[in-house]
Amino acid sequence: MPSEKIRQTAPQGLPPEIRLLLASQQLAVLATHRQGQPHASLVAFAASADGRQLLFATTRTSRKYVNLQMDPRAALLIDSRGQTAADFHEAQALTAKGSVREVTGAERDGLASLFLAKHPHLREFVGAPTCALMALQVQVYEVASRFQQVLTYRFSP
């Protein structure tokens, strides 16, 4: 039976296992849906300093963008797997759940700088007029490790 711990936000910030995954990983799997059909997309991501926002970029014609316009609820899966047998015991998976919005105006400039600090090779893509910078407003993180241990971390409203 999986063991589960639940933590609320604390003044000291995110637990170290969450901070490590957010800082060490470049890619995440974005889960959206439309009319009952799930859709998963690989995206480059960056986290705000407090971990409350996860940023990714996409074109406004992409399936993920259209899905999020219909329903902004989404999840991002960030994991530490290395495609080895050891992953069965050592890999961690972080699921971030919340609502996604497009970032615009002056806020976009600041958050685009944060995103591009982690992904400078995407500068041209992010600067294109067809590109939308998206922010997942994280409501809850769930960290699974060793297939049996789950840590749930909720942000206070």
Radius of gyration: 16 Å
Shape: globular
What is the highest CATH level, the class?
Mainly Beta
Helicity level:
25-40%
Strand content: over 45%
Q: Are there runs of 5+ residues with pLDDT below 50, and where?
A: 6-11
SSE sequence, one letter per element? EHEEEEHEHEHHEE
CATH architecture field: Roll
What does this structure look like?
- The chain is α+β, with helices and mostly antiparallel strands and about 160 residues long.
- It has a single domain (about 5-80, about 90-155), classed as Pnp Oxidase, Chain A.
- The chain has five helices and nine strands, in the order E-H-E-E-E-E-H-E-H-E-H-H-E-E.
- It has helices at about 15-25, 65-70, 85-90, 105-120, 125; strands at about 5-10, 25-35, 35-45, 45, 55-60, 75-80, 90-105, 130-145, 150-155.
- Strands 1, 2, 3, 4, 5, 6, 7, 8 and 9 form a nine-stranded mixed beta sheet that branches.
- The longest helix is centred in the C-terminal third of the chain and has 14 residues, at about 105-120.
- It starts with a strand and ends with a strand.
- Mean pLDDT is about 85; it is low at about 5-10.
Key phrases:
single chain; 157 residues; alpha+beta; Pnp Oxidase, Chain A; nine-stranded mixed β-sheet; globular
Furnish the topology, listing elements before pairings.
Layout: E1 3-8, H1 16-24, E2 27-34, E3 37-44, E4 46-47, E5 53-59, H2 63-70, E6 73-79, H3 87-90, E7 92-103, H4 105-118, H5 123-127, E8 131-145, E9 149-154
Parallel strand pairs: 1-9
Antiparallel strand pairs: 2-3, 2-6, 4-5, 5-8, 6-7, 7-8, 8-9
